[in-house]
Write a structure and sequence with these properties.
The chain is α+β, with helices and mostly antiparallel strands. The protein has 13 helices and 25 strands. About 30% of the residues lie in helices and about 20% in strands. The strands form 8 sheets. It has a 4-stranded antiparallel beta sheet with strand order 7-6-21-22. The two termini are about 20 Å apart. About 45% of the residues are buried.
């Protein structure tokens, strides 16, 4: 039986009682009016996103639900500790891989062949320094809650994770449409993110640069996440640039300005590795900057996130993260993985094929919910195609137990109905590791769907982390 975030065996969980009483007092008509205000708010600001296969593309208004998610302080403290532990480990693994002795590979914690066959493994990243070892300056860690109420990490996003702008705009919208409910709770703020990101980026500037010039590198206005790129540049008070705005001379990066060239020390890039430098990677890339990797290797500019991070968020590497936590930190993982099976292991392949209709099969290199097959919801033809794909390319897939994601009341069709949710907290690495309180709660708006990604038709909720213990925990497991 799935875990409901709001309703427990004894009714509404204590930390939700005040909110649910407030929503009930408003009535359906008032809620519908406020829901309409949400849509108008995002339309006015032009906050959009892209849906796969939808010809309207990024013209879709960002879908935010009216009912926020609430996480008690004690529960959040457990999540936060687990995220700090995980991101610390991933930073150490990546820095060891690209700038160290590759100890985890040498000692057999993770197979060398698995790392070197990852699409996210970039040989050209060898020797490129990452000040303070912060290769994952911005990490988005996707967390789900299973039927027992236990939080589990579903996947790690360490390249160019997106969504933080929606966290901040969701909060602003919520304070406008449910001001009384918001004010009646002691909620940890999120509006400091821009300052925190800027602080993290400044801390990883090249050595001897006391007052670094920073910039956000975007693919341009046609990119589905352009709103977020421009939003974050404004929040930090730095320039938003495209590849054509930058030039490299003698391994130093400069930005073209109306007053001439200005040196750039730190680049928060929102462009994939393969497009960053046409001299080294894709020669047909018009998005990157010729010579950029050479400048990074020379240590005159810092790229965030670092090149090559994709090897650590490869879904084939994901099952080894708990062992890496113990290896690098000497600690047991605080946030467990979802049970995962490896098709390249013959005995596990046999088990996977025999239980295909009870498992989820995922391509290791895809994101955004693409290519996922949920066995219990697939027809025979789909299961057969999946089996054939597994046999043809075992390294290209993993299988996992189906997690019946927790549900949360969601305003759909003029009434509250349960919908599956997950959580993407954002973690910053620099002088220290900081976890933004809450993160992006994503909700599967289609009834019964387990796919919460906005690109697949999902929506979002404002996430309230309580600043102190309020109303008890109510049947919550953090074991």
């Amino acid at each position: 039986m799935r875990f409901d975030e709001v309703y427990g065996p004894d009714g509404v969980r204590p930390h939700y009682r005040e909110l649910m009483d407030r929503l009930e007092s408003l009535g359906v008509d008032d809620l519908a009016d406020r829901f309409g205000l949400l849509d108008s708010f995002f339309q006015t600001l032009g906050i959009t996103f892209a849906v796969s296969g939808d010809e309207r593309g990024r013209d879709r208004t960002w879908p935010m639900d009216l009912v926020p998610r609430i996480i008690p302080s004690k529960e959040w403290a457990h999540i936060e500790s687990g995220l700090v532990q995980r991101v610390t480990t991933l930073n150490r693994f990546l820095d060891d891989l690209y700038f160290g002795s590759q100890a985890a590979l040498r000692d057999g914690l993770i197979p060398r062949w698995l790392v070197e066959t990852s699409d996210g493994y970039i040989r050209e990243a060898y020797g490129v320094p990452a000040p303070k070892g912060s290769r994952c300056v911005v990490a988005g860690i996707d967390i789900v809650r299973d039927s027992a109420g236990e939080y589990r990490v579903l996947e790690d996003n360490l390249r160019v994770p997106s969504g933080i702008s929606y966290v901040l705009e969701n909060r602003v919208a919520m304070t406008r449409v449910l001001p009384v409910a918001f004010a009646s709770h002691d909620i940890r703020p999120v509006d400091h993110y821009g300052a925190s990101l800027a602080r993290a980026l400044r801390s990883i500037a090249p050595p001897a640069v006391d007052h670094p010039t920073m910039a956000v590198l975007t693919p341009g206005v046609a990119n589905s996440a352009y709103f977020e790129h421009s939003f974050l540049a404004r929040q930090m008070g730095v320039e938003l640039v495209e590849g054509r705005d930058l030039v490299v001379d003698d391994h130093i990066v400069y930005m073209r300005t109306t007053r001439g060239l200005k040196r750039v020390d730190v680049i928060y890039r929102r462009i994939g590795d393969e497009f960053l430098d046409p001299v080294v990677f894709r020669q047909d890339s018009l998005l990157g900057v010729p010579g950029l990797l050479g400048a990074a290797r020379a240590g005159t500019v810092t790229l965030a996130n670092a090149i090559g991070n994709g090897v650590a968020d490869d879904k084939g590497v994901y099952p080894f993260v708990p062992a890496l936590i113990e290896y690098y930190l000497g600690e047991k993982p605080l946030l467990p993985n979802v049970n995962t099976y490896l098709p390249w292991e013959p005995d596990q392949m046999e088990m996977i094929l025999s239980r295909l209709d009870h498992l989820v099969v995922k391509p290791v290199g895809e994101a955004g919910g693409h290519g996922i097959v949920i066995g219990s919801r697939a027809d025979e033809a789909t299961l057969q195609r999946t089996a054939d794909s597994l046999k043809a390319n075992p390294r290209g897939h993993i299988a996992q137990d189906i997690v019946d994601l927790s549900t949360h009341p969601t305003f759909v069709g003029g009434k509250l109905e349960p919908r599956h949710i997950d959580l993407r907290p954002f973690v910053l690495s620099g002088d220290h590791i900081e976890v933004v309180p809450g993160g992006l709660t994503r909700v599967a708006l289609r009834e019964g769907s387990l796919i919460v990604n906005s690109s697949q038709g999902g929506g979002s909720k404002d996430t309230w982390v309580l600043d102190r213990h309020e109303g008890g925990q109510g049947a919550i497991s953090t074991r």
